[in-house]
Amino acid sequence: MSDRYDLTIKTGTRPGAGTDATISVTIVGTTGTSGPHKLDIFLKDDFEAGSENTYKVKCPDLGDLIALRFRSQGGAVDFGGHWLFAWAKAERDGKTWRFPNYTWLKKDHELTVLEGSAVLPQNAKQVGEYDIRRGQIQARRERFPWRPNDGSLPGSLDISAERPVPIDETYRGLKEGSYTVVFAETMARMKLSTSVIKRVWHALDDVHELFASFTEPKVAGRWRDDLEFARQAVQGVSPVHIQLVDGPPEGMPIDDELVYGNLEPGLELGAAFAAKRIFLLDFSELEGIPMYHGEADGKVEDRFAPPARCLLFRQKDGQLRPLAIQMGNDPELPIFTPKDSDYDWLAAKMYLRCSEGNVHQMLSHAIYTHFTMEPFVMATLRNLAASHPVFKLLKRHFRYTLAINEGARDSLLSEGGVFDLFMATGGPEKGHLQLAAKGYAEWTIEHNMLPKELAKRGVDDPEILPYYPYRDDALPIWYAIDEMVHDLLAIYYENDQALIDDEEMQDWWTELKDKGFHERGLPWEKLDTLGLLKDLLTTVIFTVSVGHTAVNYGQYEHYAFVPNAPLCMRQPPPTEKGTLNEKTIVDHMPNRTQASWQVAIGRALASFGKDEEYLLDPDGWNEQYFEEPAARAVIRRFQERMIQQQAVVDAANEERPVAYTLLEPKNIPTSITI
């Protein structure tokens, strides 16, 4: 019989993964524990990024292996002293144990890696296995504390100068640096000296000057067109607002005379509503939200984003066309239509897009993806052992989310942050944060459940809304995720009682309810059925991948050509018709400084990472957490579904007036990383 274990260790490939520290290992088995063994191959530079080396660890037979305990000593003072452990494989006498983990070992710290089998806590029956799980969870609870929170926003990680983001969650790796670096680099490349930045616009076409060093968004050539305006409601940067309505919204006294000639010949307004051919974009959330009022460029400035709404009409060919726009719910406010002057109608569309942009950035983007997902990240890290099947399922979908959320709080949303620079709702009164709290107060997790949310808005039926690329490309991925989650849970949970008996998942649920959402947002008292767990996990994985992609990565294309979607207007919306011309519209839209910031942040937030993992990887996901053949088969089936879906989207885009590439599976990151 062999007197040793052959231990193969893989170092990760992310930036900074290698280490020059001394790494030792202790092997923990069912019949004993080895002494610490220094891992070193003579004349070899061990633990370089991406390296895979085999070490001979001499010790008696320890029975079935439970864990490996690694210790780091010495090494560089800076980040180079840390080590990214990917996986290990131990072999002895024809038996093999695997240890997938993909976790950082901090300089001069210890890391315990459990054997790779996915096991529920009630089934952790090996000697010492349960205690290792509980110790791992307790250590994470100390490293990932909840931030004090009054419940007005979702729970989050408590971070301070003394307790920064833990190394496992440290954010890095954008192709061109962090998003703040991309932001600064974009501003520099636009060569905007102080004098140029302050130069006023004279005409709408002046905006083209901002793209001397960048590819101009394609929308710049068609943004004035009504069909393009309506198209963005179903495949723009925020395609989650459109809803079917059966009559005019309250406070919009629209009638046949007002829209005469804008429907089909002989079709009256009431019949169009009854035929389910009229849809609504409604940004009433902005009612009562304070707008920016403060000093900018040495003078007092006001910004505006009204609680605007827009009715859209479905033509016979299935395409949408804007029918009427109003700047609020006061029936005395004018209703603008395509029959108004070119400048009145153009301004109405710009104000509507400004309203949408402010709601999009704070609600459909920040709150409904980034910040409502953070409690799930926290609860998972604080309550599930690395060998729990749900932890293994979720880990890849939570990478960098805690760090990017904290980065957003610090540089985008804080006082004097980026949003204060150019958002209508930014500024001293923190209207953007009031908007966030207002939207969150109405949120439940069912808002993120795509089939329910589409049905609630009345846009789930292709017969009613034939052209809706967001729905058509997102739904197949939702059901593929649902199938994957269902099949994985079925491997490890025999029945609902097994979930009820799972103390780690029950602790997960309790923290979600109490700390993450403060007894709101999750409309169920207990986590007591596998069906509910499946729905929750499907929703989380969909939101951090497809949901976030749909409302984030189109920002440069949508926002960079500022007249298409200005994020602030500098004059109040018109209260009467016939007063506007090109000069007044230019005076209403963001100035050159604000437009430049809008270009820069749009470019930065649409950046992908060097080490990004996508829903579709032809070679399979790089980080493999499951060891069981049945579980790996489920993951392979999901990848096959993504390959099929990619082909479907490719074919659909050949027929679409404008290709919708955001939700190609090969372009959808598995987690919120920006």
Summarize the structure.
The chain has 674 residues and is α+β, with helices and mostly antiparallel strands.
Which CATH architecture of the domain at 4-116 is right? Sandwich
Mean pLDDT: 92
Structural class: alpha+beta
| Distinct helical segment count | 19
Rounded to the nearest angstrom, the radius of gyration is: 27 Å
**Count of strand segments:** 16
| CATH C-level of the domain at 4-116 | Mainly Beta
Unreliable sequence segments: none
In which range does the helix fraction lie? 25-40%
N- to C-terminal separation?
52 Å
What would you call the shape?
Answer: elongated
CATH superfamily of the domain at 4-116: PLAT/LH2 domain
CATH topology of the domain at 4-116: Lipoxygenase-1
| Strand percent estimate | 5-15%
Quick tags:
single chain, 674 residues, alpha+beta, Lipoxygenase-1, 5-stranded antiparallel β-sheet, 19 helices, 16 strands, 37% helix, 14% strand
Describe the protein's architecture and organization.
This protein has 19 helices and 16 strands. It has 674 residues and is of the alpha+beta class. The longest helix is centred in the middle third of the chain and has 42 residues, at 342-383.
Topology:
Blueprint: E1 4-11, E2 22-29, E3 32-33, E4 37-38, E5 52-58, E6 65-73, E7 83-92, E8 95-105, E9 110-114, H1 129-143, H2 179-189, H3 194-198, H4 226-235, E10 243-244, H5 269-274, E11 278-282, E12 293-296, E13 299-302, E14 309-314, E15 320-326, E16 335-336, H6 342-383, H7 389-394, H8 401-413, H9 418-422, H10 431-441, H11 450-457, H12 469-492, H13 496-500, H14 503-516, H15 530-552, H16 555-559, H17 582-588, H18 592-605, H19 629-655
Antiparallel strand pairs: 1-5, 1-7, 2-3, 2-4, 2-6, 6-9, 7-8, 10-11, 11-14, 12-13, 14-15, 15-16
